[in-house]
Write a structure and sequence with these properties.
This protein is of the alpha+beta class. The strands form five sheets. Strands 10, 11, 14, 15, 16, 17, 18, 21 and 22 form a nine-stranded antiparallel β-sheet that branches. The protein has a five-stranded parallel β-sheet with strand order 3-2-1-4-5, sandwiched between helices. A four-stranded antiparallel β-sheet has the order 6-9-7-8, with helices on both faces. Strand 12 and strand 13 form a beta hairpin. Helix 5 crosses helix 6 and helix 7 packs antiparallel against helix 8. The chain is globular, with a radius of gyration of 21 Å. The chain binds adenosine monophosphate and glycine.
Length: 436
């Protein structure tokens, strides 16, 4: 069995690790494009960009790849699944038309409105002048301004007044900070409450939620500082109570499944529900069409069933036949170790030390690489990105998992290293949820 995983971050490392560490102990040949230095320790990395669909197709044909799993958002938006399907190659992920739930926020918003899925109310603009006059007359602050398209998790502006909103609009629509992604903007109502990620498998008919998780998006402790791709994650989310689980299934997951069917959109892959628990109940902040990063690094270590078997079932439309089992009695905490300065400017190429002091053999610590590369001179490891590593630990409870993760992180050093020290602590107001 030859498998190709497309992407090169911590999420893809976790996917590759989970495929290799499968319950049956089945040997699998895994390729990863482009991968990173950590993935290279357990799989064969191929230097092809995740967005270079043609070269990836050629590689898959030439190497007789049996199955390709797409980790990242951008290739999905470019239609990599359509291209692989077109050549008769087996592939995991939604086609471009289904991934639109992620790559067009205005499309996702219209979909949610049509199918009664709770989400912030919004207006969509494709003209700077009209958007500007709309915010000048906005009666309520803050407002949230979002680039319609993909923006590496950075296209969301929470603006407390007209001056901030004007600046956001001009960055997105005039300066084109995120290129074509900002040609259209969504201006939406500001919501408040704790957030939770719900990842779900989908085979085009059935949507099956995984364990819940939570992403710590802000750069600094106490949810301060700028938004990042995610500075840590926990699984499960303490906010996702049994009561809310039923409510979310009934009001969000099922209407999404039915809405997709009604629109004739066959969504095969991972549906990501970004949820916020507001005082009016759970709302969808966003959909994504792939595994979350770093949520995956906390969720997959608790999956018992073979990930490959589940992916096959999604592709084949037989998800209802698979009993997906989890370590329900355990918790996982992933601490992201980042380059100082991230999500702004940061240096690269700093030697990473101390990983050899961490014992991964005990089975409760996993080091997932994100931005790393091998040094040219020797076997050393160098930083090569904003998020460098994700250190995940499992435990009998959240505290134990967090303690283990931070004990492992304490071994790691590199120049300008930065990590939050409060991953696994809940900083938001839990009473909000209890009062629902
Ligand atoms: P997104 O990229 O859409 O996930 O947004 C990034 C983050 O911005 C979310 O995780 C929220 O913390 C915040 N956010 C997005 N939309 C809203 C909203 N309508 N109200 C309040 N916060 C929001
Ligand atoms: N962790 C947020 C995302 O993957 O979009």
């Amino acid at each position: 069995m030859k498998i190709l995983v497309v992407g090169g971050g911590g999420r893809e490392h976790a996917i590759v690790w989970r495929l290799i560490n499968n319950p049956a102990g089945e040997a699998r040949k895994i390729y990863c494009a482009p991968g990173n230095a950590g993935i290279a320790q357990i799989a064969e990395c191929v230097p092809i960009s995740a967005t270079d669909t043609e070269t990836l197709l050629d590689f898959a044909v030439r190497e007789k790849i049996d199955y390709t799993i797409i980790g990242m958002d951008e290739p999905l938006a470019l239609g990599i699944v359509n291209a692989f399907n077109g050549k008769g190659l087996r592939v995991f992920g939604p086609v471009r038309e289904a991934a639109k739930l992620e790559w067009s926020k205005s499309f996702a918003k219209a979909f949610m409105r049509k199918y009664g899925i709770p989400t912030a109310s919004c207006e969509v603009f494709n003209e700077y002048g009209t958007a500007l006059s709309y915010i000048k007359n906005a009666g309520k602050w803050p407002v949230v301004i979002k680039a319609d398209g993909l923006a590496v998790g950075k296209g969301v502006y929470i603006c407390k007044d007209a001056a901030e909103a004007g600046k956001a609009l001009s960055e997105l629509m005039l300066d084109k900070k995120f290129g074509g992604s900002g040609a259209e903007v969504v201006i939406e109502e500001f919501l408040e409450g704790p957030e939770t990620t719900l990842l779900a498998f989908s085979d085009g008919k059935t949507v099956v939620p995984m364990l819940s998780s939570m992403d710590y998006k802000k750069a600094l402790n106490g949810d301060k500082g700028p938004n990042t791709g995610g500075m840590g994650a926990i699984c499960p989310s303490p906010y996702y109570t049994a009561e809310l689980q039923d409510l979310i299934y009934k009001n969000i997951v099922l209407p999404t499944q039915n809405g997709l069917a009604a629109e004739n959109i066959e969504f095969k892959g991972i549906l990501y529900f970004g949820l916020m628990f507001t005082k009016n109940g759970p709302y969808v902040i966003e959909y994504n069409a792939r595994f979350g990063d770093p949520e995956t690094q906390a969720v997959l270590p608790l999956l018992k069933t073979d990930l490959l078997e589940i992916c096959f079932a999604c592709s084949n439309g037989t998800l209802d036949k698979v009993k997906i089992k989890w370590h329900n009695d355990m918790n996982a905490v992933c601490v992201v170790v980042a380059s100082g300065g991230y999500p702004g400017e940061f240096g690269r190429g700093y030697p990473v030390n101390g990983l050899d002091k961490i014992n991964e053999n005990a089975g409760n610590i996993m080091i997932f690489h994100a931005g790393t590369q091998k040094s040219n001179e020797g076997e050393g490891l160098l930083t090569n990105g904003g998020r460098v590593l994700g250190v995940t630990a499992t435990g009998q409870n959240q505290e134990e998992a967090a303690r283990r993760a931070y004990a492992a992180v304490s071994n790691i050093t590199f120049q300008n290293m930065h990590n939050r020290t409060d991953i696994g602590e809940i900083t938001s107001d839990k009473s909000l949820v209890n009062n629902l």
